[in-house]
Write a structure and sequence with these properties.
Radius of gyration: 15 Å
Structural class: alpha+beta
């Protein structure tokens, strides 16, 4: 079955992930499940992301797009568009407040 993912750093955001996708992106952080049956996992991967400015927003006329998994992603200025690094393959939106609470830069490229 699919996995229910609770992002503890992003105001309780929950989403569904295919078991195979989840296994590729997260590793068990150890510990016991909580009263909901949720366990803590750590991300394995790295993403590349760009903050959506007015310039980028002008390139998204409907202010939304359909993600690889079929869900409409609403985009607002200040949100981030991200893709797995280095493989790419899918683009998804990360809400501006959730991005700052969930991600940290690894290094700056020049």
């Amino acid at each position: 079955g699919d996995m229910i993912v609770l992002n503890v750093n992003a105001d309780g955001e929950r989403y569904i992930a295919k078991r195979e996708t989840f296994a590729k992106k997260y590793e068990d952080a150890g510990g016991e499940a909580d009263e909901e049956g949720m366990k803590r996992y750590n991300p394995k991967g790295v993403i590349r992301a760009v903050e959506v400015s007015d310039t980028e927003m002008a390139k998204i006329p409907a202010h939304s797009f359909v993600a690889a998994w079929g869900e409409e992603m609403i985009v607002e200025v200040g949100d981030f568009l991200a893709l797995p690094h280095p493989d790419g393959g899918e683009i998804y939106r990360i809400e501006k407040n959730a991005f700052g609470k969930t991600y940290a830069p690894m290094h700056k490229e020049h």
